[in-house]
Amino acid sequence: MAHPTPHPGPPARERFPVVVVGAGPAGLTVGNVLRAASVDCLVLETETRDFVERRPRAGVLEEWAVRGLERRGLAGRLLERAERHTACEFRFEGEGHRFPYTELTGRHHFVCPQPLLVTDLVREYADVRGGAIRFGVRDVRLHDVGSDRPSVSYRCPETGERRYADCEFIAGCDGARGVSRAALTAAHPARVARHDYGVGWLALLAEAPPSCDRVLFGVHPRGFAGQMPRSPRLTRYYLQCPPGDEPENWPHERVWSELRQRLAAADARPLTEGRLVEKRVLDMHDCVVEPMAYGRLLLAGDAAHLTAPIAAKGMNLALHDAFLLGDALAARLTKGDGAALAGYSAACLRRVWDYQEFSQWLSEVYHGTASGDPYRAGTTLARLRRLFTSPAAAAAFAEQYLGTAVRH
Ligand code: RFL
Question: Which domains can be identified in the chain, with CATH numbers?
Answer without folding.
Answer: 12-85+110-194+286-362 (3.50.50.60), 197-284+373-402 (3.30.9.10)
